[in-house]
Specification:
single chain; 116 residues; mainly alpha
């Protein structure tokens, strides 16, 4: 039985990889085998980048909350501890927004937490 090749799907596969490698430098966007390695590596970078993005935003929110709390003489850790003691569940994203854009509301929250 003669050997048959499936040129249509092979070409489609190669075109897909080369399309993903568009904009890469030099042979990374031209040569299939090099482009394939570069695209696989880029997928790894994008996966870890999505995780790193979440980490970076959380640290940014913590810095903003800390800056807002220190205006009133409190540290971030004290503030978050008091929040958990009072069973107030507000995420860091909202708290950082309040500390930056609604300082009056943030001050009321700190006064409420430390009042009793």
């Amino acid at each position: 039985m003669p050997r048959s090749t499936n040129a249509v799907s092979s070409r489609r596969k190669r075109k897909k990889i080369l399309k993903l490698a568009k904009g890469f430098y030099g042979s990374r966007s031209k040569v299939y085998t090099v482009a394939k390695n570069a695209v696989e590596k880029s997928f790894l970078y994008s996966f870890s980048g999505r995780k790193r993005k979440k980490r970076n935003f959380k640290s940014l929110w913590i810095q903003r909350i800390n800056a807002g709390a220190r205006q009133y003489g409190k540290s971030y850790s004290e503030f978050m501890n008091k929040l958990s003691e009072k069973k107030i569940k507000i995420n860091r994203k909202i708290l950082s927004y309040m500390s930056m854009n609604d300082p009056n509301v943030f001050k009321k929250m700190i006064d409420e937490i430390y009042s009793k």
